[in-house]
Fold each of these.
Amino acid sequence: MVCAKSHGKIGKWVTWVALLLFACSRGSNLEEHTTSSETVQCDSSNIRQEEIDSITNCPIQRLRISAVGDIMLHDYQMRKAYRNDTDTFDFSPVFQQIQPYLDEADLLIGNLETVFGGKKKGRDTSVYGYGTFPYFNAPDCFATTLSEAGFDWLATANNHILDAYPAGITRTLNLLDSLGIAHHGTSRDSTERQALSIIEKNGIKVGLLSYTHSLNGIHLKKEHSFMVNEYRKYDSTKVSEMCAVARRLREAGADFTIAYLHCGTEYQRTPNRYQRRMADSLHKAGCDLILMSHPHILQRLEIIPPTEEQRGSLVAYSLGNFLSSQVYSDSIPKDIGAILEVTIRKDSCGTAIDQVSVVPTYTYWRKSHIGILPVIQAYNHPDSLFHLYKRDKERVKDAFSKTLITLRGKMDSTLWSIDDDRYLLKW
C-alpha cells in the first residue's frame, strides 16, 4: 500500500498507518493478528476504516454471502400451491415475508433437496404427477420461484438427488442452467465432474463445492459413477478427493472457499463425530466457510482457529430447514432454520471474514402456501409483518428464546449479541 496524498490529520494518523503497513507485511491471514496493545490488526477498530481508506491506496472489496439450509417441497406445500383451474402451481407467496433479507445478499446459496425430473418422471408421481417424501420431484415452476427469490448457487449433492433416477439429475442441472443458477455436487458427464465452481462478485472470487454422505441406499451404476459427489461411509479416499477439490479451488484463484456438505444425523441437536471430522478435514484443506445440512434442525456454529498454515474457519453444522412442511413435534423444532450472513473483506492484507450475523427463521402455514418468517422481527415487531396466528406467536416466542442458545453452542456467550432483527457474532 502507498499513501495516496497528504492530509491535515497526518500527524495523528501516520503512526497508525505505519503500524498497519507493518502488520499487513507480516502475512495475509487476518486471524494471525491479535487485538492486544502490542499488535495492530489490518482492519483495526482503533481508527475509522474510511479514514484509513482515504490515506492509503488500499482498494477494499466486500461481499455478503447469505446461506440457507434445506429447501424442500413436501406434500402439503405442493397441494396448497396447486391451482386446479390451470393445472399449475403458484409458489410466489412462499418467500414474501423473508424476501427483504434475501435481497441483502450479494451471493445467496442453499441446499436444493429435491430434483426437477419432469412430470410423471420420478420414482413417485402421486402428487399431480410429481413426488414428495420419500421420493422428491418438484415442478419446474418452483425452480423459477427460487431464481426470482435471488438464489445464485445451489448445492445439489444430497440423499434425494436420485429420486428421479439419473435422468432427473441431468434435467435438474439443465433447468438450473437455463435460469442462471450455478450449482455443484452433481454432473452430467465426467468433464463436468472435474469442473470447479467459482463465482466472482464485487471483485472477490468465491469457490464452492458440494458433497453428500448418503444416496439413501441407491447405488449408481459404474457408467453413472461421475454423476454425484459422494463419500458414503466416509470413505477416506473419497474424503481426500473432496479436500483436493477444495485445494484446487484456491489454486485456481478463489479468494474464499465454501464447502456445503450433506451429512449428520437427522433431528439431532448436536453434530456427530463424522461432522466434526469433516469440518476438521476441510479446514485443513483451506475452506473458510463450512456448511452442513441433513439434520433438518439447527445445530451449533463453531469457529476453528487459524494455524500457521490455514486461516480460521467458520462451521455451521446444520442450518436446519429453510423451507419445508415439517413442523414442531416431539420437542423437535423442524420448523426453525436460519439464514447465515457472512460478510467477507478483501484488501491488500488478503481475504477474510469480516462480519457474521444470523437471521433465525420459522415456517408458517396458510391456506394457500407454507412460507418463511424472520423470527426476531416477528417477535420484536409483529405488526411489521402480516397477521400472525396464535400458533405462530407461540413458535416465534419459543424460537426467540432458544435459537441463540443452540447456535452459540460451546462459544463464549459474550461473543454474541442481538441486534434489532439479527444475532451478531463477534469475529
Amino acid sequence: MIEDFINIEETVSKSLDIISPNEYFPDVIVSKDICDPDELENLASWAVENFLERDPYREITYSDAGFDLRKDYMVDFHNNFNRMSGYSHNLRFSDDFVSNEWGAFDVETKEIVLNSNLLVDSNPEKVMKTILHETRHAYQYFAINYPDKVYIDDDTLKAWKDNFKHYISPELDYEAYRNQPLEKDAEDFANRMWNEGVAHAA
C-alpha cells in the first residue's frame, strides 16, 4: 500500500522538477547511470536467501525470538537489501494499522511502515514479503521520477505514473486496489523474490 495520496498529483508534479536523485533519494547508489532490473532482483532474492541461510545459526532463531528481536531481524533484513538499492529509507513497525492492512510506503518520507501484527507469526514469510512489496513501491516511485535511470518500458512507466495520481485505497474498493498496476507489480515482485530466495537457500 502507498500512503499520502491526498495531494499525490501535486506531489508527483513537484517531484518531477527534482534536479538530483540524491535530494529525495539520498541513499540510492548512483555510481551506475542505469538501474538494471535484473541486478535489483538479484539483490532482493539474495537478501531473502541470506536471511534464511543465516537463521539456523543465530543464537536465537526467528521462530524462537520474541517480538522485539523479530522486529530487529526484519529491520536488519530491510537494511541489508536497502543498503545496496537505497530506494526506501528506514523501516518501522506500527500498531496503528487496521487488521487487514499490512504495510505502507510513504512517498514523502520514503519510509516503510509495517503492521506490528506481522511479527506475531513465527514464520517470517509474510513479513518479509511485505517488506519486499513495499520496497517495490519505493522503486516504482523512483522510476517515475527518474525514467532515464531505469530500464522500464514507456507504457509501464505511464501506467505507474497514472496510478500514483489516481491510487485506489483498499478501504474504498479492495478488488480494484489489488488489481491496479502498482499493486499487481509489487505483489508479483515480492512473491518472485521470496520464491527465488527460498529456492537458492534450500
Amino acid sequence: MKDNKKYSNYGELSNPPVMGENEDWDDNHYNNQAYYKNNWGYQQQYANYPMGPPPRFIPEQGVNLYAITPSSISNCLHRHTYIWPIFGKGYWMFPTKVYRDTVTGYKWNGYKWLYFGTTLNSIQSFDCYR
C-alpha cells in the first residue's frame, strides 16, 4: 500500500508509510533506500552501501559504440560495476545515484569501499555484475 508522505531534507522518511497486514516490505524508495518493518517499527535497510567486495576478476573490455548516458548507467545502480575511464586504470564501482552528468557511489580501493563520484564523460565504458 503506497501513499505520498513528506520526506525530510536528509533523505529519511519523516512519517513511514503504512503497510498492509500481510506485507513485509514497502517498495517506496526514496534516495534508493528501502524500508522494512520489524517488531520495533520501520528500520532503514542499508541498500546504498555494498555488502561485500567486488568480484575477484577484471572483465575484458568490450567495444563501446555509444555515449555513456544517465539512462545507460542507471541499469547498474546497486550492482558491482567495472568502469574503464578514458584516462587511467579501470576500477570497481558500486553506483548508488546517477545525475544528468555525474554518477556517485562507492569505489573499491583494493581493500575497502570509499565514497566516490565521477562525471559520465570521463567514462569510456562499463560493465555491471550482480
